[in-house]
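Course assignment 3, question 2. Fill in each field.
Student: A.L.
Task: Predict the tertiary structure for the chain below.
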Amino acid sequence: MVTTADRMRKAANLMVSAGLTVKYSSGWESRGRPYSFHPTVGFVDHHTAATSDIDNVLINGRSDLPGPLCHWALHKNGDWVLIAAGYANHAGESQQGAPTNSSGWGCEATGPIPLDGYGPGAFPNYNSYVTGMACILEAEKWGTSKIWGHKESCYPSGRKIDPSFHMPDFRAKVEHCSISGEDEDLPLNDADKKWIRQTIHDAIYYHNLVVTSGGSNSQINKDTYPEYFDGHHPSNQAIIDQTS
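Answer field:
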């Protein structure tokens, strides 16, 4: 039987393979509140609203809320720490369909810095957050739709503001993050798009020249265009409509 601790170890191993530093708090494997915990709905991302690491609070809790308060801690320097493999008081009351304390993992990331900061620049651990989440999703075989910001999952809406960065951008970064050591596919910039558009336009132009001149073969000059562009193929019609 695969335990929640096994699942966290798998993610931690992927993090190490991706170049991240992982630490283990003493007793993390058995730490948790005495309630049922089946993290199948998703993962809730938080920030601590502290400018320094607060593992002691995340493990032992506060006067108003007993610990543990998360499963993973993300330090200011980008280190990941396994805090608890069991039920943690992190999500609180949640929207319908969102992860809860009993159905979702949670991470507390140190920051923002300054406390009123917003965006990736306010989190020195932002890139580690992205890579670590990609490793966790890979270990769980989940897509990025399983990632929730606490400000998205909390009920009622507006009860929480963390984490202080744009969640759609964060999910997009996680989705395109390479944890295999290979270069990731980057979005096309304007110069790329212009080159592709011009190449397609020229390919159609030369294709039509061959056809209208009675040529029996519409193969584009392979030295100029390595791949044949079939201007009449249905899958290219949208591009043709935009280009012509």
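Instructor remarks: The chain has seven helices and eight strands. Helices lie at 4-17, 55-60, 126-140, 150-153, 167-175, 190-212, 237-243.
Grade: pending
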